[in-house]
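Blinded run. Sample ID left blank on purpose so nobody reads anything into the name before looking at the predicted structure. Input follows.
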Amino acid sequence: MLNDAEIPLKRKDRRKDDPLIIAGGPCATANPIPLSDYIDIFIIGEGEDTLKQFLNNYDKNKNLEEYLEIPGVYIPEFDNKTKINIIEDMDNAYHITNPVLSESDDEEYQSVFNNTIMLNVSRGCTRGCRFCMSSYLYRPMRQTSYKKLIDIAIKNRENTGLNKITLIGAAVSDYNDLDKLIDGLEKEGFQISTPSLRIESITKETLETLKRSGLKTITLAPESIYHLRKVINKDILDEEIFTVIKNAVDLDFKIKLYFLIGIPGETMDDIEELAEYMKKIANMHKSIKNVKFSVNPLIPKPQTPLQWETYDFKDIKTKTRYLKKEMKKYNIKCESPKKGLIQYILSCGNRAVGELIEKSLIKAPTLKEWMEFVPNYSIDDELPWSNIDVGVDERFLKIENRRLKNLKQTPWCETSPCYNCGACEK
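Blinded prediction complete.
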């Protein structure tokens, strides 16, 4: 974008009459450092309140120092310590009621959720899956009241004519009033779809209501075989998974399932067991083509207990090749191990990675060039993103890193005593 707009790429080369370049979102919040030579200001966390204060200051003064006192602002020039800014009351958060819609039939110009109303039921998740950035960035979990969500849906329909709802949030199936929300939307005549649902939160009644509303595909994330699920703090029994799948099959849902490879401690024996596990799931359906598997390499993410782990490209490549061959009769898609490597470097890299990103504007870097930037952190290293405080204590992340190696589970704090992660004052 900067290149096309003929704005100097690096902030040190920009003049006073050039615009301020601002970035935000989950990836920038977790680790803004790879882009820190190119971005003037990062918004850390949820932007509503931060942007209001930022724009009030911008009208008066464009001097970067003036923004240092605004919560949730990280300025690379000063490398200031920054604490994430989040909205406490979701009923007062920003909810879209007049979305921008594509009128083109060309898929190139359509969004992933084109022609659907997106209802933000909640933000944050405290399940504590150790690989998941959403489990640590936006704690604690905050929910929009179901009556407010129904009102938002109706306003969206009035403004757009759309009648399809997509429920969005890091943990939609943990929403306290999910059945009330779905029932209320159904009574208003909406068609409802959902992202991946948490297996242990899904009831048969919820599936039946979703089916009545017109949902055709249910999306689940078992992640792996049982003992590897325990590594990532996702202690869901096989019996629970098979019960949900059977209920979905009985209701004639198509099923999409997400799996991970490259979990710490994983062996080729585990991958062979995983292939048999997926075959068993597919064979539960009337047609194996109605069960779709998405297999992705685990990418260690900043601000999670896996931030000190690495990405073994050769190992991931070997396992991916095996699964593709073993599952060739089934509906399976495996993410590219090389793409996973690049994601890892962009996620956990330092300032030097920016040079490779800039180079990619002219010519795609080779695998060898990417490999030169693979991080290798030990648990006592100062990490590139150490000045970014997302609310979860590093002490807690180190404890979780040790626990994953011992297959120890950390219970969900919504139903268990607080374990002092640092994100809320309990």
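Unblinding after everyone has recorded impressions. The CA atoms of residues 346 and 419 lie 31 Å apart.
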